[in-house]
Amino acid sequence: MSREGAKGLRVIQAGPLAMIEDGGRMGVRHLGVTQSGAADWVSLYWANWLLGNAPDTAALEIVVGGGLTLEIERATRLAWVGADLDARLDDAPITPGSSFAVREGQRLVFSQPRDGLRGYLAFPGGLAAPEVLGSRSTTPREQLGGLHGDGQPLKTGDRLAWRGEPGEERRIPAGLLPPMPRPGCRLALIPGAQIAEFTGASLYAAFNSVWQVDDRADRMGVRLRGPRLESRVGSMISEGIPLGAVQVPPDGQPIVLLNDRQTIGGYPRLGALSPLAAARLAQCLPGQEVRLVAVARERALADYRGFLRNF
């Protein structure tokens, strides 16, 4: 049965940005194709864990909420993890970090964010969507992935189907689900690239100042407002850009590059956020205060492996 005709869930009202995302489109950056995937991959992993899915299974990434309304057409069990977007099932609140049963005719509504920015709605077996270069992730700029394979967010009238059946109910163990970022939250940064080319005063400011998340933030990157950073490097030959790379353009305000970033860049870099820190930044609303904390690569790798042991 086609996705359009499949009985599962129907979009009654499309919110500002709801997209199918999975673990990302890996191994294709040499083609000029970005990684994409869930911006807060930590929440995606836990949402899938609640349903017994593989951690990187395709789910729905919902940004802000903004009135997104979904009508259930087939009974199942869903999972909701990440931001508190005032999600309600027929007016009954849905707590982030939990799974819940739904039946035919019910409606799920997502409103304005109360805590965090992005939530992840997981489905048994993952959402049915075409694989493009090994991933179902939606990438609007490159017109790849998503429900119809064209990189577009969900639209009113779209129908979603899932690829499995619900298993037994699970609960996330106490203390394992990271909270949403708080003012002054610490973001681990692995120094590298051109960090030695920044002035001493700039390095002191970078790691001893409070930075504010700018309203110029999306899945490509997040600009931070704060003291002006200066580098002795002028023009550079463009080089590969990893997830969480912290570039500093001529205006001295850092830009942290996220999942839909360009594949190469020519601005000097302080280094890169750890994968866990990049997921945390993806939940920060404009105006949120954050701090950059330098960590050794070995420490960041140990934290990352420690998290993955949960799965």
Automatic annotation (TrEMBL):
Gene3D superfamilies: Cyclophilin-like. SMART domains: AHS2. Pfam families: CT_A_B. GO terms for molecular function: ATP binding; hydrolase activity. Residues 137-158 are annotated as: Disordered. InterPro entries: CT_A_B (IPR003778), Cyclophilin-like_dom_sf (IPR029000), PxpC (IPR052708). The keyword Repeat does not apply. Keywords: ATP-binding, Hydrolase, Nucleotide-binding. Residues 30-311 form the Carboxyltransferase domain. This is KipI antagonist. The lineage of its organism: Bacteria, Pseudomonadati, Pseudomonadota, Gammaproteobacteria, Oceanospirillales.
